[in-house]
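How a chain folds remains the central question behind the approach discussed here. This step matters because it turns folding into a mapping between discrete strings. The sequence in question and its structure tokens are set out directly beneath this paragraph.
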Amino acid sequence: MKTSIKYSEDIVPITDLKVNPGRIVNQVEKTRRPVLLTSRGRGVAIVESVKDYEERTEEQAFLRGVVQGLVDIEEGREISLAEAKKRLGSGK
């Protein structure tokens, strides 16, 4: 489970990434928190683990599907279970 951001650790100048990229990557993997890279005091990029990125994008896609399904139901775009099975070719 991800923990909340630690401003003292998770916001770093981009020069730190240039000097020691392995430290930033290891930190992200160890803490499972993204790191905000800054340049001249402004946020310019986020570094996060591939696993966390994939989990987040899968969760977002799932939630979008749920919301779209709720909108479809609200707008009357629904079919019966029997019709769904028929359309999917699993007629039983």
